[in-house]
Design goal:
Blueprint lengths: L4 H11 L4 H7 L4 H9 L4 H9 L4 H9 L4 H9 L4 H10 L3 H9 L4 H9 L4 H9 L32
Helix pairs in contact: 5-7, 6-7, 7-9
């Protein structure tokens, strides 16, 4: 017979040295999240506040360590990024306008952050991504001007010289 979710959670909590009171007090966090919060000194009220912003515990620990505020996460969320992207950007030093430009060029934030850290300018990253692909097939959004540089339909494939 399969172990019930409650039994599994209780066993997992014991493995992390947590009590049934910890599980009750920290509900709805999972045992690993409770353990991680306690290990890193995250208060329950802070954990709930950051969870309300959409952050999982690992990102909450990073956000606190980086000195972030919930408003920073909200700013990124309003720009269409996942809450975890705000933490990744803060940790890697990628400002919001830069992240938006890279996203418009088709890069997810973690990839953009790695490329930026490795010294890739956006134009070169786009050119490298599309190397060997026919010009008319390069822009996934039907030839959209992902860099915002095209003034006419004829220019739309010449943005970033890709």
């Amino acid at each position: 017979m399969a172990e019930s979710r409650i039994d599994h959670e209780t066993a997992e909590a014991r493995a992390y040295g947590l009590t049934s009171d910890d599980l009750r007090d920290w509900a709805p966090f999972s045992p690993i999240e409770i353990y991680w919060a306690l290990k890193h000194g995250v208060a329950l009220s802070a954990a709930r506040r950051w969870a309300g912003e959409g952050l999982r515990m690992g990102d909450t620990v990073r956000a606190i360590a980086l000195g972030m505020t919930p408003e920073e996460v909200r700013l990124w969320a309003r720009a269409g990024f996942a809450p975890s992207d705000a933490v990744e950007a803060k940790q890697t030093g990628v400002p919001l306008p830069t992240a938006v430009a890279w996203r418009e060029a088709g890069f997810i934030l973690p990839d953009a952050a790695l490329l930026i850290q490795d010294g890739w300018p956006l134009e070169e990253a786009v050119n490298a991504r599309y190397a060997g692909i026919a010009r008319e097939d390069r822009h996934p959004a039907g030839g959209a001007d992902h860099c915002g540089t095209a003034e006419t339909d004829e220019d739309r494939f010449d943005c970033c010289r890709c």
